[in-house]
Request: fold
Amino acid sequence: MKDRKLLMIPGPIEFTPEVLRAMGMPTTSHVAPNFIEVFGQALERLRQVFLSSSGQPFIVAGSGTLAMDIAAANLVEPGDKALVVDTGYFSERFTAILERYGATVTPVRAPVVGDAPSLEDVEAELKKDGYKLMTVTHVDTSTAVRADVKALTALGRKYGALVVVDGVCAVAGEEMRQDEWGIDLALTASQKAIGTPPGLALVVAGPRAMEAFRKRKTPVGNYYADWTNWLPIMEAYEARRPSYFGTPAVNLIWALNVSLGQILEEGMEARFARHRKLNEAFKAAIRALGLKQVPVSSDREATTLTAPYYPDGVDSTVLKRINEAGVILAGGLHPAIKDRYFRVGHMGAVSASDILTTVGAIEKGLAQAGYKFEPGAGLAAAQAILTG
Ligand SMILES: *Cc1c(COP(=O)(O)O)cnc(C)c1O
Reply:
């Protein structure tokens, strides 16, 4: 019997064999000609995946939180005003990071967990004050709430704010068009929808963000995150010249380049469509099983992630049963409702058979936990969409 379980959490996700093979290659020098070529190509491909021809990409060793730190450290000066569109745990992390660099932060929240603030509420706040910067969490991984990045970005720009999008659970899964939508900086981490093991912070900064950085009056308050150190490195590798500031994560960058190549081979539009379809199938299964979700309405639901509440009489011990049935899921994260729901990631190289396997394991776990439902109802609902 295979003893390998399917990892369906919101990162790290399942990686393709080709990406994993790159992780196991003999490590080259960070200035070896073949590595310089790979690093340069990864930077070019990152632009294509973010749909940003005008952006400056940064690939730095660290997690998604470092990518957030890089955005805040380079764009914020003490006393700047920042608006955080607050949809949960990771939006609040952005508030903490921005405050660390001296920003005065105003969070705009929805009244209930599982919702996003209305465009009217965000606009009312933008009107009140001169905000230098606004952050939006594309998919808040704690609640599976998706923000309307396109509309929020348009609003932020209308009032002259730099718009920063935390796309850690979204880039290469959710539809995001950095240039077309006017996003000034978008960021992600390697282990989520972009499909590379954990360890890389990925940032694409648009021209207005780079200009705000160049016009700073004060030095960046973080040595490792400072674009003064990293910009010449990224420019050098893209021009296929050796360069050094901090040793790049050589194998991770080889693996990232493989994954970016696979993403572009699929094509961004096809990739968005595949994520939409698989999400629709999984959400249909969850509804057919009678489970409610944390997002308050379907237009707030993420494409890359689902957060169902446990049904009555079932608690988090069901995750262990689902694990025994072969699928690893994640528990709740938002402090207000942590023990009442679970999370299923479906992004990256995820396939239709992964969706069916996951629904099957959830059904098995729920049945063992004594929950009453028609066995196969979730599978039938998913399959109806997958075969449609
Ligand atoms: C995972 C995640 C982060 C944090 O990324 P780490 O790699 O865990 O530091 C930030 N924002 C969002 C939306 C995330 O999903």
